[in-house]
Amino acid sequence: MFYLFIYMYMFSLISLMMIRKHIFLCLISLEFIVISLLMMMMYYSLMFLSSYYLMVIVMVFFVCEGVLGLSVLVNMIRCYSNDYLNSMILW
């Protein structure tokens, strides 16, 4: 079961590296990374720690990360009228 979560994490990292055209697709890849990390932490905490306070704190940080990503996406669509990474001249 733990290897499935590691596979999800590696697959999402590869998809984040390969998909560089739209910010929305990068955000989806980042959220997939977050979900796989959260599932790994839940598996570990259920097996050994049985402490849920840390899980709630981590989930709050993950939600804040998602909200910041969506706010960047909305701001970019309002300023540049698209979500292409090439329109920002990042690299």
Main sheet?
A: none
Q: Give the N-to-C terminal Cα separation.
A: 38 Å
Oligomer kind: single chain
* Total strands: 0
Radius of gyration: 16 Å
Helix and strand composition category: mainly alpha
Share of helix among residues? over 70%
Structure description:
With 91 residues, the protein is an all-alpha fold. The radius of gyration is 16 Å and the shape is elongated. It has helices at 2-18, 23-49, 53-80. Helix 1 packs antiparallel against helix 2 (23-49) and helix 2 (23-49) packs antiparallel against helix 3 (53-80). It contains 3 helices and no strands. The longest helix is centred in the C-terminal third of the chain and has 28 residues, at 53-80.
Layout of strands and helices, then pairs:
Blueprint: H1 2-18, H2 23-49, H3 53-80
Summary of the model, kept short:
With 91 residues, the protein is an all-alpha fold. Helices cover 79% and strands 0% of the residues. The longest helix has 28 residues, at 53-80.
